[in-house]
């Protein structure tokens, strides 16, 4: 930045308010919401994560980092971590691959393009718990339509007893909802690729599949990376409703993700201190993911 | 090395837009054919039909004696330079040029040889590892050219390749393209709306208007004998002076009654418009001895535009506005009454429909 006049360092002229109070008043609602719904609970979680409380709330004891040590050494917690990773990766893959496929196909449609797009975006408006119920019904071992079909194919379908099947079910429900969102971004990403690039590639002798893998897919990399982060965050933190409706974390602990475990330990088992420690760990994970998103999505993966 | 023939080619877009109407064109081996015309006249459409990027509604496109209507862009053995260059942004300059060769499963050493040879020709050798976004406009343009020449195709297609460059670079690249095309001897079609570019590059110039071909010929031939009013006004800068004649007179009288002086000057009865290029008009002074102009017209000077090597005098004859081009500086002042003259051989006469007589 070059300094002009040498008085102020601001590269962008700063808005000057004659009234000293007004700017703070204008910011107040946003600050209040952030404080009440984020900083307050976050600080409470941090505080509680260092206490040990009995289930009836009669005695509280300061224990420092003991809760964290205990949680991180707990095989159940590590198992939950593993479940979450599997769940997040599977959800991201199954939410992104079909979305990309649909977007590429929708991009080729000339007539009625708008209708296809609108219809494909609708599932996003369905509430997570409803989406979960829908899948639960479809796959219910005794009354579900798809469960019947699966059984007639010779698959013994019982997600209430079979852990991997339960996982498949929650992944399907979580990914299904996210496909619409990803679809929207992929469509926008595809539209941003100049048509002449694809034409140049076809003159250069690349067939349709080749064009996709060597030109279109690499140019979608920024979009894909962005969606990968978004979908991972979604799978980590936004799927409570679905898991709660479909499996409740079971059978056993087969679908108990980290977020679900916070709920189970805190509100069901009333181990408040450890539950708080878990949510602090989750908070660190969110911050890390957001940092990755800011650092790479907004800067690095960019073609010009 | 190939010829390119268009036979009765027509294009109707969905929605019944007739973008190209019955174009017939034969381009001999090694010639550079320039399509020129105003915006929306169908130049790009025609080029894209040759490339195979647009379907052909009617007619035939023949490359090297083979009808290519049903062949895809890859099988026609053509290379195209796009207006925005269409370089692959995620590939290095080297990979941009090699892409088409790799797709054709050429051996690696041969690819390398060709890419380096083209890079040397285009002075890109030191830029091979860069991405397109790290290049200047002129360098990108060169890479786009390189991508076309490594393929060694039968036909080059250019769609306004220089329109994103500044005036100076455009002039420079124009010369380079011409030299390159001539030395490679590849049959080429070049689209532009810049008539100067068209005049200087073309072996064959095709002037288009509203989906029709108005005239085909050598650039100077078209300049000297424009086949229609449209061509007369489109080719040449500043454009030809066009004066409306009083209909059915057969005498050189303008619509407003102004008479053009001159002995034995008579036009056919169909003559509707008289055209004279600015440089074919000259000032007639009282003491001009000997050479007497075939036609003279009295005008009132309105404005002078000196541009250095030459000056343009704008003046009115009755209701008609004329431009006269004179060498160097001029001593005429605005408001002065002057007499301009022209030789009969330099007069262009057009009929009611705008056709040359
Ligand atoms: N995909 C399309 N669908 C319908 N009409 C089209 C399409 N592409 C072009 N046209 C129409 O066809 C006509 C010719 O277009 P074209 O692009 O060939 O013009 P052009 O001579 O290249 O003009 P410019 O100098 O502005 O590039 C125009 O009227 C345009 O509106
Ligand atoms: Mg065009």
UniProtKB/TrEMBL annotation, chain A:
One Gene Ontology cellular component term attached to this UniProt record is:
plasma membrane
Looking up SUPFAM superfamilies in the UniProt record yields: MetI-like
Q: Which PANTHER family match?
A: BLL4140 PROTEIN, SN-GLYCEROL-3-PHOSPHATE TRANSPORT SYSTEM PERMEASE PROTEIN UGPA
Q: How does it sit in the membrane?
A: Multi-pass membrane protein
Q: What is this protein called?
A: sn-glycerol-3-phosphate transport system permease protein UgpA
Q: Where is the ABC transmembrane type-1 domain?
A: 81-293
User: Is Membrane given among the entry's keywords?
Assistant: yes
Question: Which Pfam families has this protein been placed in?
Answer: BPD_transp_1
Q: What does this protein do?
A: Part of the ABC transporter complex UgpBAEC involved in sn-glycerol-3-phosphate (G3P) import. Probably responsible for the translocation of the substrate across the membrane.
Describe the subunit structure: The complex is composed of two ATP-binding proteins (UgpC), two transmembrane proteins (UgpA and UgpE) and a solute-binding protein (UgpB).
Compartment annotation: Cell inner membrane; Cell membrane
Under the heading InterPro entries, the entry gives: MetI-like (IPR000515), MetI-like_sf (IPR035906), UgpAE/MalFG_permease (IPR050809)
Q: Which processes are annotated in GO (biological process)? A: transmembrane transport
| Main location group | membrane
UniProt record similarity statement = Belongs to the binding-protein-dependent transport system permease family.
Membrane-spanning segments? 21-40, 81-104, 116-139, 166-191, 212-237, 276-297
Q: Which NCBIfam families match?
A: PRK10561.1
Which species is the source of this protein? Paramesorhizobium deserti
Cite the entry's keywords alphabetically.
Answer: Cell inner membrane, Cell membrane, Membrane, Transmembrane, Transmembrane helix, Transport
Superkingdom in the source lineage: Bacteria
From TrEMBL, chain B:
Q: Which CDD domains match?
A: ABC_MalK_N
SUPFAM superfamilies referenced in this protein's UniProt entry, alphabetically: MOP-like, P-loop containing nucleoside triphosphate hydrolases
Domain ABC transporter as annotated: residue spans: 4-235
Q: Name one GO molecular function term.
A: ATP hydrolysis activity
UniProt-listed Pfam families: ABC_tran (PF00005), TOBE_2 (PF08402)
Task: Identify the main location.
Answer: membrane
**What is the annotated localization of this protein?**
Cell inner membrane
* Transmembrane annotation, as ranges: none
Membrane topology designation: Peripheral membrane protein
GO BP, one annotated term:
glycerol-3-phosphate transmembrane transport
Keywords (alphabetical) are: ATP-binding, Cell inner membrane, Cell membrane, Membrane, Nucleotide-binding, Sugar transport, Translocase, Transport
Q: Which GO terms describe its cellular component?
A: ATP-binding cassette (ABC) transporter complex, substrate-binding subunit-containing
Going by the entry's taxonomy, the superkingdom of the source organism is recorded as: Bacteria
User: What NCBIfam families does UniProt report for this protein, alphabetically?
Assistant: PRK11650.1
Family, as annotated: Belongs to the ABC transporter superfamily.
- Name the record gives this protein: ABC transporter domain-containing protein
Native source organism of the sequence: Paramesorhizobium deserti
Write the lineage as a comma-separated list: Bacteria, Pseudomonadati, Pseudomonadota, Alphaproteobacteria, Hyphomicrobiales
């Amino acid at each position: 930045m070059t300094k002009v006049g040498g008085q102020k360092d601001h590269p962008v002229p700063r808005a000057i308010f004659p009234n000293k109070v007004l700017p703070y008043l204008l910011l107040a609602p946003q600050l209040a919401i952030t404080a009440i719904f984020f900083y307050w609970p976050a600080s409470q979680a941090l505080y509680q994560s260092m206490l040990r409380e009995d289930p009836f709330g009669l005695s509280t004891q300061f224990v420092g980092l003991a809760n964290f040590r205990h949680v991180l050494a707990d095989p159940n917690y590590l198992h939950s971590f593993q479940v979450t990773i599997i769940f997040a990766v599977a959800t991201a893959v199954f939410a992104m691959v079909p979305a990309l496929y649909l977007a590429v196909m929708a991009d080729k449609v000339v007539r009625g393009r708008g209708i296809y797009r609108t219809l494909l975006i609708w599932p996003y408006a369905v509430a997570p718990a409803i989406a979960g119920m829908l899948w639960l019904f479809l796959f219910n071992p005794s009354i579900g339509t798809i469960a019947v079909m699966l059984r007639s194919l010779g698959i013994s379908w019982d997600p209430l007893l079979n852990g991997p099947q339960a996982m498949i079910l929650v992944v399907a429900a979580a990914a299904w909802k996210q496909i619409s969102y990803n679809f929207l971004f992929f469509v926008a990403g595809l539209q941003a690729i100049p048509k002449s690039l694809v034409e140049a590639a076809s003159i250069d002798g690349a067939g349709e599949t080749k064009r996709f893998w060597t030109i279109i897919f690499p140019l979608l990399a920024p979009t894909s990376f962005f969606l990968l982060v978004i979908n991972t965050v979604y799978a980590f933190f936004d799927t409570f409703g679905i898991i709660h409706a479909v499996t409740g974390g079971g059978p056993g602990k087969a679908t108990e993700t980290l977020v679900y475990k916070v709920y189970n330990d805190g509100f069901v088992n009333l181990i408040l201190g450890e539950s708080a420690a878990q949510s602090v760990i989750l908070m660190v994970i969110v911050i890390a993911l957001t940092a990755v998103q800011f650092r790479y999505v907004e800067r690095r993966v960019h073609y010009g | 090395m190939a010829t390119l023939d268009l036979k009765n080619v027509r294009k109707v877009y969905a929605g019944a837009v007739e973008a190209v109407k019955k174009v017939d064109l034969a381009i001999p081996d090694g010639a550079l054919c320039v399509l020129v015309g105003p915006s929306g006249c169908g130049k790009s459409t025609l080029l894209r039909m040759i490339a195979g990027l647009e379907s052909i509604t009617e007619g035939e496109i023949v490359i090297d004696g083979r009808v290519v209507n049903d062949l895809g862009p890859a099988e026609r053995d053509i290379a195209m330079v796009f207006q925005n260059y269409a370089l692959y942004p995620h590939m290095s300059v080297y990979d941009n040029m090699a892409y088409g060769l790799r797709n054709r499963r050429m051996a690696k050493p041969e690819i390398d040889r060709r890419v380096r040879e083209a890079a040397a020709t285009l002075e890109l050798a030191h830029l091979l590892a860069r991405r397109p976004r790290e290049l200047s406009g002129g360098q990108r343009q060169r890479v786009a050219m390189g991508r076309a020449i490594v393929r060694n195709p039968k036909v080059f297609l250019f769609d306004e390749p220089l329109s994103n460059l500044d005036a100076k670079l455009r002039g420079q690249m124009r010369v380079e393209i011409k030299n390159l095309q001539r030395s490679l001897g590849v049959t080429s079609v070049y689209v532009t709306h810049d008539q100067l570019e068209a005049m200087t590059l073309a072996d064959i110039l095709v002037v288009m208007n509203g989906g029709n071909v108005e005239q085909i010929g050598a650039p100077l031939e078209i300049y000297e004998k424009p086949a229609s009013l449209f061509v007369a006004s489109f080719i040449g800068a500043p454009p030809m002076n066009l004066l409306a004649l009083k209909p059915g007179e057969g005498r050189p009288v303008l619509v407003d009654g102004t008479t053009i002086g001159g002995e034995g000057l008579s036009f056919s009865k169909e003559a509707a418009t008289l055209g004279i290029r600015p440089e074919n008009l000259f000032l007639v002074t009282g003491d001009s001895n000997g050479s007497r102009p075939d036609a003279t017209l009295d005008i009132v000077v309105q404005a002078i535009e000196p541009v250095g090597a030459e000056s343009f005098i704008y003046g009115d004859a009755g209701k008609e506005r004329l431009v006269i081009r004179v060498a160097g500086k001029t001593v005429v002042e605005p408001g002065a009454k002057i007499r301009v003259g022209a030789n009969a051989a330099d007069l262009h006469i057009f009929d009611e429909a705008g056709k040359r007589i």
